[in-house]
Specification:
This protein is α+β, with helices and mostly antiparallel strands. It contains 1 helix and 2 strands; from the N terminus they run αββ.
């Protein structure tokens, strides 16, 4: 069984940059019929 330590809670800088890039380009569009569609803007 894996135990999580304080060090495991801190992701690397590369991981943080990747998360930021995805969050910046990821959008949810609400369509006219009320449904939502996810898209990634590049």
């Amino acid at each position: 069984m894996k135990y999580f330590t304080q060090e495991a809670l801190h992701p690397s800088e590369r991981t943080l940059e990747l998360i930021k890039q995805i969050a910046y380009t990821y959008r949810v569009i609400k369509l006219t019929d009320g449904t939502q569609a996810a898209c990634c803007l590049n």
